[in-house]
Amino acid sequence: MKWSGIILARLILGVLLVFAGAVKAFNPQLFAYELEQYNLVPVPLIHFVAITLPWIELLCGLLLLTGFWVRASAWVATGLMVAFLAAVLSVIVRGLKIKCGCFGTVGTEFVGWWHVALDAGLLAMAVWLTRHGKE
After folding, report:
1. Helices (H) and strands (E) in the chain — how many of each?
2. What is the dihedral of CA 101, 15, 82, 122, to 10 degrees?
3. What is the pTM of this model?
4. In whole angstroms, what is the distance from residue 49 CA to residue 74 CA?
5. Helices 2-25 and 46-66, packing angle to 10 deg
6. pLDDT-derived band of residue 48, with 50, 70 and 90 as boundaries?
7. What is the C-alpha to C-alpha distance for residues 90 and 55, in angstroms, rounded to an integer?
């Protein structure tokens, strides 16, 4: 049972991170624009983050899917989910009406409580994998 839970968590996190990273990596201009809307990253760093963050997501997702360095990639996924959750909560608290940008142009809905629930669930999976994933 434990192994099937580990595999399921790895698959869910891995697929979402690969997909999210890929759609942003191949359109960094759009991601930079969406990132700017959050008003959290200093302007001089927006393009750097828009270029590097998707590749971190992509690599982390691939490692989870392949089963290499599961705990290490789960720690990276945990950090990513904490950052994404904080960003989404920040948007809600500040009352901004912006598009998420989580999945490039695929998910074009505005940031809302659904994103908090999604990120919190993914965060829980990532934390669980840091403890139970194999190395």
Report:
1. 5, 0
2. 110
3. 0.89
4. 20
5. 150
6. very high
7. 24
